[in-house]
## 1
Amino acid sequence: MASPLLRSARCREHLLIPNLHRISVHLTHHQQTLPLPRPNISIKKNHPLIRSFHQSSQKMSSPNAIPHPLLMIPGPIEFTDEVLQANAHPSMSHVGAPFINVFGESLEMLRKVFLTSDPASQPLVLSGSGTLGWDIVAANLIEPGEEALVLHTGYFADGFAECIETYGGKATQLQAPIGGRPTLEQIEKALKEKKFKVITITHVDTSTGVLSDPRTVCELVQRVSPETLVVVDGVCSVGAEDLEFDKWGVDVALTASQKAIGVPPGLSIVMLGKRAVQAFENRKAKPASFFASLKKWIPIMKAYESRKPAYFATPAVQLIYALNASLKQILQTSMQERFAKHKAASKKVKDFVKAMGLEQVPNKPEESANTMTAVKLPDGIAPTDLLPKLAARDIVFAGGLLPQVKYFRVGHMGVTATDEQRGDLTKALEGLKAALAECGYEGAKH
Ligand SMILES: Cc1ncc(COP(=O)(O)O)c(C=O)c1O
């Protein structure tokens, strides 16, 4: 029996679909019968009308041709022409069949990106950013007074812990020195001291560039505290770092559109495993949020995936078109191939900065992210010296987030890492060397 929500949505479907059908028939007819705009041959070639026609059609086919600085911060990233064009999709009904199809197909593709084939896994795409993923976990999977173990590898663990406490959970942070990550021994000891409802891992902490190892943490949790849910904050990793949802036994992985998923900011993307869905269903307290409630969203996502319209809150229609375009591009190769490309791009950046004598924030190469590089600045050079010199070369890097270290961050995710023909890495690294030389850094002068 359909829920009242779905029933009411289906009533709307009856109202809307016939109209939509008429609209699409009308559009097709319109396109067939209206003459295409043709330049009048009596107008000279460089007439402003002709120039603007050519300029606008060039802009439409290649939004990246619009001059803009190369964005190499750890998100948002550079987007492909196809994604930017999809993001400019004309307005569509959010409960009409064409859009529901695109949404449903995107959810199916997300399963492939997260590497889950378990039908009990539940993808969610909500209007919001990565932070909303924290709220979804904290408001639905942790009941007031329940414990969460937060593995701290930088700034973003503090945020997740604060979010958990906002909804009444108790967060214990397991700290590591800057540039490091908690050891398996420390995690095992902590898991044996208390019963934790969830353990959170920041796969890549974007403030430090430290890469965690969710696979070994999953193995440890399964051995020591199997009822604890493993939650991976994959905002700076999903779609680029090796993450095998089913194989490793991850219970929740969350991300955002603007990083390795390659879509403009505005979507919160979450994959729930079977155990996470069950934990929510067995919850005694009501979900502690209205907008982030899984009670509201799971039926909506299930409806989209079975191509039925449903409504709880208006989705970001154009961003979903962009997501669909990006996921199609991502899935043109295997995820393993994509992970390998990100590793190769990362190595190129890391080898380059090392050759100039610069150190990185992560203490060990094997604990360094492949999606970004956090580079310590030489004595006497501040981010405020370097970043404007890069900007003058049309290159945007990010400053550091931790006040204790003087460093800058380079993002190399998505098309910048996978499409060598764009030349993004070469431009960025040459620009970095020239900017550092201009700052007076000897290591960049030969
Ligand atoms: C690891 C990590 N988690 C969470 C967030 C928060 O995501 P958002 O800024 O999309 O809300 C970020 C943002 O950069 C992040 O890097």
## 2
Amino acid sequence: MKKSAQLIQSNNDECVMMNKKLDANCNSRISNHEVISMPFSSVSEAISWGAKMLLESIGDASLAERESKWLLESSAVSAGRDPLFLNQPDLTARVSSVFRSHIARRSRGEPLSYVIGEASFRGIDLFVTSDVLIPRPETEQLVDEILKLIPKAAEWQILDQGTGSGAIAIAVALERKLVHVTGIDKSTSAIDIAKKNVKRYGLENRIDIIEADIFPKEGLFDMIIANLPYVPDKVDLPKEITEWEPVLALRGGPTGMEVINRSIELSNKFLKPNGLLIYEIGEEQESGFREHWQNRFEFKKDLNNKIRFMIDRG
Ligand SMILES: C[S@@+](CC[C@H](N)C(=O)[O-])C[C@H]1O[C@@H](n2cnc3c(N)ncnc32)[C@H](O)[C@@H]1O
């Protein structure tokens, strides 16, 4: 019998653990993320319990049900089980315990990707924690724009500034087999996640991940690609973002354009002749960048018809 199950016994329909009364769901919080709990008797019981718990924060019954199912699958994986094991009628105490903890985190508003520990980006599964931004759909489009600029046979050196989870670097390296990417980030903990993701895709020989402020100590690149922080310091962001995602990934200075402008100013030293630059920017920033860089850049819209990308073709 598993330890968590041993600790709990049912006593006149009340749950007790070492003589301590537990709550109605037989839960006792023993650490931040671990909850000792009675195992659910079936997968469907667990999913409907999770959906009920999530309904208040999510507000949409079918989404709550779907998320509950995803969280149960991820709980099985976190507990070291194959998700196929969920076809069996009984759930182990360990899986039930991880699941209750995941549902509790999601109910408090933590983004699903952080709870699951993974995000999907252009079909690539990336490890994510609250140390990195959850890659956004606009950034998938940034990769489309980047790929349009790189010929298939190009053996380019590419610099990915603000690599975060490594999403852009990995997506580009997977689609352009001859390029070498250097991913830079200022955050030590983001660097750890990016390295894990690079290893996951076996790209250690073609992607270097380096902790630095925008540029490495040295290097010459054919292209600089960047999704650096660009939200102005004083612009309000939704609570779901500010409460959970890293501020270093979001705030770009008083106008939001400071980090990108610094990258452009220093780029001459790191770009080969006719080297290319491409940045993701904020939807309100076109005129600011146009004025500052005297129409040096071409601007492109995202799928929501908002200006989102800025390109200098060298
Ligand atoms: C908007 S996130 C982008 C993450 C990832 N590239 C993506 O698209 O999902 C910006 C990233 O830039 C990093 N960053 C912020 N300021 C930086 C700086 N001065 N030098 C290097 N990286 C920086 C943050 O830590 C964060 O990981």
